[in-house]
Design brief:
Length: 92
């Protein structure tokens, strides 16, 4: 199984970083920054306007520049069975 990686930006330095995704949901993305014994987990949550995901690790802010809608579309594309399970059917 191949680990999914995403690119986040360190807002202090402006440098992009490749990080490994541990879990991905529309309302929370958990990533691992670093490797080996020096790795750290970071939770990325949607910003107030929903245009990006932000989190901090060791006091430094990191941002993933994809909107909430884009991440939800990625999840729906990767696993269409989840989308079907979320649909609401009206009982009559």
């Amino acid at each position: 199984m191949k680990n999914e990686t995403i690119t986040v930006i360190n807002t202090e330095s402006g440098q992009p970083m490749e990080v490994v995704v541990m879990s991905k949901r529309a309302n929370l993305i958990t990533v691992v920054i670093g490797q080996g014994v020096h790795n750290m987990q970071c939770d990325l949550t949607p910003t107030k306007n929903g245009q990006a995901y932000a989190g901090s690790v060791r006091g430094r802010e990191v941002v993933y520049h994809r909107s909430h809608a884009q991440v939800q579309a990625d999840l729906d594309h990767d696993n269409p069975a989840l989308k079907k399970s979320r649909t609401f059917k009206k009982h009559t």
